[in-house]
């Protein structure tokens, strides 16, 4: 696990913690989580998964899955005139 990874719990709809319920993610063995990824709620990241940087994950992953976000596209516009 790299720096600034968030393993975050859900709260209920009223914004309060649900006492006695599991709310944090489960991370299985051999998982690599890159910087700035956020894994949210009671989900499971399966064995040997790779979670890319800046990913916002809200669904469980089966073992041996790789998750990454698409690179953003640059939009270049030139100023006309001077």
Question: Your description of this structure?
Answer:
The structure is a single chain. With 82 residues, this protein is mainly β. It has one domain: Hexapeptide repeat proteins (UDP N-Acetylglucosamine Acyltransferase, domain 1, 3 Solenoid). It is 0% helix and 22% strand. It has no helices and 8 strands. The chain has strands spanning 6-8, 26-27, 32-33, 38-40, 44-45, 50-51, 56-57, 66-67. The chain has a 3-stranded parallel sheet, with no helix packed on it. Strands 3-6-8 form a 3-stranded parallel sheet, with no helix packed on it. The protein has a two-stranded parallel sheet with strand order 2-5. The chain is flat and about 65 Å long. The mean pLDDT is 87.
What spatial order of strands do you see in the largest sheet?
1-4-7
Low-pLDDT residue spans: none
Classified by CATH, the class is Mainly Beta
Order of helices and strands: EEEEEEEE
Would you count the extended β strands for me?
8
State the CATH superfamily name.
Answer: Hexapeptide repeat proteins
- State the end-to-end distance: 49 Å
Question: What class do helices, strands and sheet pairing give?
Answer: mainly beta
What topology does this entry show?
Elements: E1 6-8, E2 26-27, E3 32-33, E4 38-40, E5 44-45, E6 50-51, E7 56-57, E8 66-67
Parallel strand pairs: 1-4, 2-5, 3-6, 4-7, 6-8
Describe what is shown at a glance.
The chain is 0% helix and 22% strand. It contains no helices and eight strands.
């Amino acid at each position: 696990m790299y720096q600034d990874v968030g393993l975050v719990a859900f709260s209920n709809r009223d914004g309060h913690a649900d006492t006695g319920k599991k709310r944090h993610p489960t991370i299985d063995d051999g998982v690599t989580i890159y910087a700035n990824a956020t894994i949210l709620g009671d989900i499971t990241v399966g064995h040997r998964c790779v979670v890319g940087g800046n990913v916002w994950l809200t669904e469980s992953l089966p073992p041996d899955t790789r998750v990454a976000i698409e690179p953003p596209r640059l939009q270049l516009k030139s100023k006309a005139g001077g």
